[in-house]
Write a structure and sequence with these properties.
Helices cover 26% and strands 21% of the residues. The protein is of the alpha/beta class. Among the domains are: 44-130, Immunoglobulins (Immunoglobulin-like, Sandwich); 557-635, Sandwich (Immunoglobulin-like). The chain has an 8-stranded parallel β-sheet with strand order 17-16-15-14-11-10-19-18. The chain has a 6-stranded antiparallel β-sheet with strand order 20-21-22-27-24-25. The longest helix has 19 residues, at 531-549. The chain binds calcium ion (CA). The site of calcium ion has 7 residues, from loops.
């Protein structure tokens, strides 16, 4: 990808042509004398971002230049509308950071960035400015209208056996029998199954990070990045990633990219040659984060606790980036903008959100939104309680004088509320009352509909196992997930009742049966699934496809009623009552008869409803609610 020319090749050729070691030594000494310390600056390892775009909101661009002793060179460029404002030298002479401005008048095209030493050009890099893709259907955002499918690309489907083991990468073993090794799944495997997902009612795919994780072991999860600008070659290429998104868009589907600000993998190329000490957080001895989000929000917190939480490393193999370093800030922000503009990504999921520097993340969000107003963003907040997660969302400014500008979060409190409905015993604050209570706290958010809600993910035990493989509970939970407020997300395999507990987490990351050529069972096909698996699949499919046409579920408000007699009732509605969705949750072992008089303000005189799952009409004057059931009714 790097294009470079060198005018020092003559000297290299000369030094290699000698057969006599002594003469060679003299020649090399002479060369060093003549060209000084700059001789070694004859190779550009990296220029990042490799190319950029015209017409961006922010005219500033900071290029990272990496090459041996590159700091000894003088940099120049000439191109209409592009100005080299500043050349930043840092501690490590193998780096330069070039501050450019790109005027709104600059046109797409190419220009050389020249590196000279003592007036002699030693290198150049042909920089490319591409036209920005401003087509309307690109970058649509992911909203409550959507249903997200979370998968791990290594574990979903192997669409290209030729990339299973890639020469030159640190991990050389493919072993599907071990949960720790690579299994060979890839982007082509996902592309091959977009129609399967669309049929199921999925509108959006989120996969765990696809970018290179060239670590010696167990990096199939993707959170130990080693090259920010490269799709892991075991998954495919940058071009294939772009094609994956274009294919999804052509099918009316969307794509979320999972990105990590907080840390990298120790195998990262820049970790092996740090631009400066403060590129990552340095500690006198290894210091792990406390994983205590409270230290960030607590008005009584000590500086020491806050520092440990934010600057401590996530694990020993994942160095913690110093997000207060302006060069790190530019590097990350530009990288994310580059990927979105390059590939047309609809939404971002931000890994380990509470561990990042809050001021930087707020600035980052503003910059991203300025470039891509439709982009959806939600942060991973694996925390306990509504207040703890709401703290990180935009507009939540009580006692802070600070706005995160983060639109949504992964809503663990709603997840916990749904599990309490399914597994808890009803009481004043327990069972159905817990979910009611969690949603009553939505006043803490500027817009809770931007939260991503889920029952499981790659870091948790699987949903079906957590409800003790109780199929009634499975259906109740899925029905709540697909009808309450927020953007629903399902973890791959939940539609076919994949199960297991997350200890170790590899157990919940097993291969989707049928994703590999020669698999004994192909559960992508109805005839490869058991009756029960088909029942689960069809249950999800019915509700997910219903969502696609339900204005109430897509854009409607939520109204919930105080649970009475252990029955929890909520509505999704727009002002026009037609199409209102009424959800009745009975988590008890007893069938109930529900008088609906107290819901008059939402039922609004309507007497007939359609049971969305059964497709049957029924009166709603009095509703018979079977034991352990979530009824989904459309008023019409
Ligand atoms: Ca493969």
């Amino acid at each position: 990808m790097i294009k470079f020319e060198t005018s020092s090749s003559f000297f290299i050729a000369l030094s290699h042509s000698s057969n006599f070691a002594g003469i060679k030594k003299i020649l090399i000494t002479l060369l060093i004398l003549f060209s000084g310390i700059n001789l070694s600056a004859q190779k550009l390892e990296r220029v990042e971002p490799m190319f950029w775009f015209t017409g961006m909101h922010n005219p500033a661009l900071q290029l990272l230049i990496h090459g041996e002793n590159i700091a000894a060179s003088t940099v120049s460029l000439t191109y209409p509308g592009v100005k080299l404002v500043k050349v930043n030298k840092v501690e490590n002479p193998n780096y330069l950071f070039l501050d450019l401005t790109i005027a709104s008048t600059a046109k797409a095209g190419k220009f050389p960035i020249n590196f000279t030493v003592n007036g002699k050009k030693i290198l150049n890099y042909i920089y490319v400015l591409k036209n920005r893709d401003k087509s309307e259907e690109r970058i649509q955002g992911v909203t409550q209208k959507d249903f997200i499918y979370l998968l791990m690309p290594d574990r979903f489907s192997n669409g290209d056996k030729s990339n299973d083991v890639v020469k030159g990468l640190a991990e050389t073993t493919l072993n599907r029998d071990s949960m720790y090794y690579r299994h060979g799944g890839d982007l082509q495997g996902v592309i091959n199954h977009l129609d399967y997902l669309k049929d199921l009612g999925i509108t959006t795919v989120w996969m765990t990070p696809e970018i290179e994780n060239d670590m010696s072991k167990a990096s199939y999860h993707g959170y130990a990045v080693t090259d920010h600008y490269k799709i892991d070659p075991r998954y495919g290429t940058n071009e294939l990633f772009k094609k994956y998104i274009e294919t999804a868009h052509a099918k009316g589907m969307k794509v979320i990219k999972d990105i990590v600000h907080n840390h990298i993998g120790t195998g990262h190329w820049f970790y092996k040659d740090l631009p400066m000490k403060s590129w990552v957080h340095q500690w006198p001895k290894y210091t792990q984060t406390s994983y205590r989000d409270q230290a960030v929000m607590d008005t009584h917190a000590s500086q020491a606790d806050r520092k440990k939480m934010l600057d401590g490393w996530f694990v020993p193999s994942m160095p913690d980036l110093d997000e207060q370093n302006p060069f790190v800030q530019n590097y990350l922000t530009q990288n994310h903008i580059w990927w979105i503009e390059y590939a047309g990504i609809d939404g971002l999921r931000l890994d380990t959100y509470p561990y990042n520097d809050p001021a930087y993340m707020a600035d980052w969000a503003l910059k991203l939104k300025a470039e891509f107003p439709n982009l959806s963003i939600f942060g991973e907040t694996f925390v306990n309680g509504v207040a703890n997660q709401a703290y990180f969302t935009e507009g939540n400014t009580v006692n802070r004088g600070f706005n995160t500008h983060l639109p949504g979060i992964t809503d663990m409190a709603v997840k916990d509320g749904i599990y309490e409905v399914l597994n808890g015993k009803n009481g004043w604050t327990d069972g159905v009352n817990r979910l009611y209570d969690v949603l009553a706290h939505d006043f803490l958010y500027q817009d809770p509909t931007k939260n991503c809600i889920a029952l499981d993910n790659h870091d948790m035990s699987r949903f079906y196992s957590l409800v003790n493989e109780d199929f009634d509970k499975y259906k109740m939970g899925m029905a709540m997930l697909l009808t309450t407020r927020g953007i629903p997300q399902m973890y791959y395999g939940t539609e076919i009742l994949m199960k297991n507990f997350s200890n170790p987490d590899g157990l919940v990351r097993s291969d989707f049966p049928g994703g590999w050529p020669g698999d004994k069972k192909d559960k992508f096909l109805a005839n490869g699934r058991t009756n029960k698996e088909n029942e689960a699949f069809n249950f999800v499919k019915t509700l997910a496809n219903y969502r696609k046409n339900s204005v109430a579920l897509q854009t409607g408000k939520l109204m919930q009623f105080v649970p009475e007699d252990d029955v929890y009732v909520y509505f999704r509605y727009n002002e026009n009552a037609k199409g209102t969705v009424m959800v009745v949750v009975n988590n008890t072992e007893k069938a109930k008869t529900l008088n609906t008089d107290r819901f008059a303000e939402r039922i609004n005189g309507i007497t007939i409803a359609k049971n969305v799952i059964l497709g049957e009409s029924q009166s709603i004057k009095e509703i018979k609610v079977p034991a352990k059931t979530t009824l989904v009714l459309e008023l019409n």
